[in-house]
Amino acid sequence: MKVLLTGSNGQLGQALRLSLPKAIKGEPLELIATSRQGGNGMIALDLADRDACRAAVVEHRPDWVLNAGAYTAVDRAETDSQLAHRVNGEAPRAFAEALLSTGGRLLQVSTDFVFSGDQGHPYQPEQALAPLGVYGASKAAGEQAVGELLGFGSDGHGAILRTSWVYGAVGKNFLLTMLRLHREKASQGESLAVVADQVGCPTSTLGLAGACGALIVRRLSGVLHWSDAGAASWYDFAVAIGELAQAQGLLDQPAPVRPLSSKDYPTPARRPAYSLLDCSSSREQLGLPAQHWRAALQEVIADVGA
């Protein structure tokens, strides 16, 4: 079985390269890892180049395209909308168009930002999309392209796996930023201010990579949700990072964390105020248990310190 992986050098891509099964039902899995620059065993593939995306599928004829690459600069997308839509919307469409002729399947990793965050209770996979900004709209366009071209359900060859607040031991993410700021602020005797009125759930790349692997093994089609269990604000997440990092010896002392209102921390792109994903039916389909986000965070912090 061949899996063409995009974004292989990103935080999720690196977790996938380590955790995808070596074989599925006795058949060896051949991983074709791609990244924008290539190198280090990866093939160069620019997701902003639709022709290159189609050509990669035609050349390698994968059984699955696992599209873990994305334009994720949420605020910059507001002024760089063309590139965001090329990477997040047009690349999935190009993959899907090519897969129509080769017969493969597409797993598109998506985001909680396709929802507005207005309803105040967890979002179901089948709910209508209502993104607030360019980033969410571009990811929604990618989802829609997969559904239109490859279809969902028993006869479909398309799958969407939405997730939220992704972080890991490598890359650029909230965890690593907070570890740095805790050190800096604590050494200067200062506090750290973090938004407390946006609610969702942190998701470890370790668990998310496992969900992607289970989806491929089970050949699922449709829209699924995956995050770690529980709920948190960014403030809660920042406090937990400080506490757990100190307990594991990564910090001598965490900085005090002050709750901040979104109104006091304006950003170019609006964020959903409540973007918790209902993952109950998806966990059943994937055959994977829930893990509380704090337990997952403890595992990742251990990896950072290893």
Question: Order of strands in the sheet with the most strands?
Answer: 5-4-1-6-7-8-13
N- and C-termini, Cα separation:
33 Å
Based on CA atoms alone, the radius of gyration comes out at: 19 Å
| Structure summary, number of beta strands | 15
Q: What's the CATH architecture of the domain at 2-167 and 203-228 and 275-289?
A: 3-Layer(aba) Sandwich
In the CATH scheme, the class of the domain at 2-167 and 203-228 and 275-289 would be Alpha Beta
Largest sheet: 7 strands, parallel
Order of helices and strands: EHEEEEHEHEHEEHEEEHEEHEHH
The CATH homologous superfamily of the domain at 2-167 and 203-228 and 275-289: NAD(P)-binding Rossmann-like Domain
What percent of residues are in strands?
15-25%
Count of DSSP helices? 9
Structural class: alpha/beta
Low-confidence stretches: none
- The mean pLDDT is 96
Helix content: 25-40%
CATH topology grouping of the domain at 2-167 and 203-228 and 275-289: Rossmann fold
C-alpha geometry: globular
Q: Your description of this structure?
A:
The chain has 306 residues and is of the alpha/beta class. The chain has a domain of 207 residues: NAD(P)-binding Rossmann-like Domain (Rossmann fold, 3-Layer(aba) Sandwich). It is built from 9 helices and 15 strands. Strands 5-4-1-6-7-8-13 form a 7-stranded parallel sheet, with helices on both faces. Strands 2-3 form a two-stranded antiparallel ribbon. It has a two-stranded parallel sheet with strand order 9-12. Helix 4 links the parallel strand 7 and strand 8. Helix 1 crosses helix 6 and helix 2 runs parallel beside helix 3. The two termini are 33 Å apart.
